[in-house]
Amino acid sequence: MELTLNNGVTMPALGLGVFQSAPKQTTAAVEAALATGYRHIDTAAAYGNEREVGEGIRASGLDRPEVFVETKVWVSDYGYEQTLHAWDKATGKLGVDYLDLFILHQPAPDRFEKTIATYKALETLFADGRVRAIGVSNFMPHHLKQLLDSTDVVPAVNQIELHPYFTQREVQAADAGHGILTQAWSPIGGITFYPGWGEERRNVMKDPAIAAVARAHDKSPAQVMLRWHLQQGRSAIPKSTNPARIAENFDVFNFELGADELAAIDALDTGVRNGPDPDVAREERFAMVIPEA
User: Fold this and answer.
1) Fewest Cβ atoms closer than 10 Å to its Cβ: which of 51, 54, 90, 216?
2) pLDDT tens-digit profile of 120-155?
3) CA–CA dist 251, 158 (Å, integer)
């Protein structure tokens, strides 16, 4: 299943996420995902595993154009020239000569003038053909408005925390209003540990409403949630390093949820964010240096 971005580029709707995948596990996870049928891998400079993603892609034996490669610029590399160099670092680690999707990892509102300069560098990379599409991550509607007021190319994608317990409907509506595709990170609510966030969180995988839908279709709760995303036109990037779970997460194209089931899952929204608030500066984290190699 593919989605068409606002610049005409097509992107596989379902991808493998590698956030917090240890480098030594990442290569095998990517290779397993590509063997299963995935053709979209999402990584980021801040994850510290771009090199291993590239190794997994090469180990798959697939030609470069067959794999949609998405990565992100980290805040410590924000700025026009710094971002052009961030592309050099990312492509060097991944072992590719272009990126399919290059996005800003955070709005970083405490230094938004640098955020704008960074996006303008993405526009240059896009115009030069070094990236096929550009976008953002964790941008709220007011961040999008500020960005759009100062730049020329509408982001193709906005990657945000999105699962049944946190649907961010206002962000989805803003994205749709601008022709931006919403991409879900933590799409099955299995967000891995952020120190200081979510210690009291409920496990959406054990929600009885989702379990009931899963039983009706002889599917797992994770498969039901991924199908919920896909049927509502979103991209989803579930993370796993377990080959069986990777395969399970991809087995979501042979059933369909009814309108009442989609509505029942929609109704689970709590409005509670599990990850960091994009409007709160995290100076220590933002200062993390991305190595050259």
Assistant:
1) 216
2) 999 999 999 999 999 999 999 999 999 999 999 999
3) 25
Q: Does pLDDT of 193 surpass 70?
A: no
Which residues are part of the catalytic machinery? Answer: 47
Residue 73 has pLDDT above 80, yes or no: yes
Name the 3-class secondary structure at 223. helix
- Show Cβ contacts of residue 288 under 8 Å, excluding neighbours closer than 6 positions: 46, 74, 76
End-to-end CA distance of the chain: 34
In angstroms, rounded to a whole number, what is the distance separating the alpha carbons of residues 21 and 19?
5
Residue type for position 203 = N
Strand partners, 16: 41
What confidence score (pLDDT) does residue 24 get?
A: 87
Cα–Cα distance, 97 to 23 (Å, whole number): 22
Query: pTM (2 decimals)?
Result: 0.96
Q: Dihedral angle at the C-alpha atoms of 183, 155, 42, 82, nearest 10 degrees?
A: -150
Both tokens of residue 282?
Answer: 């995290």
Parallel, antiparallel, or unpaired for β 134-137 and 101-104?
parallel
**Predicted confidence (pLDDT) per residue in 149-158, tens digit:** 999 999 999 9
Q: Give CA separation, 232 vs 138, 181, 229, in Å.
A: 19, 11, 5
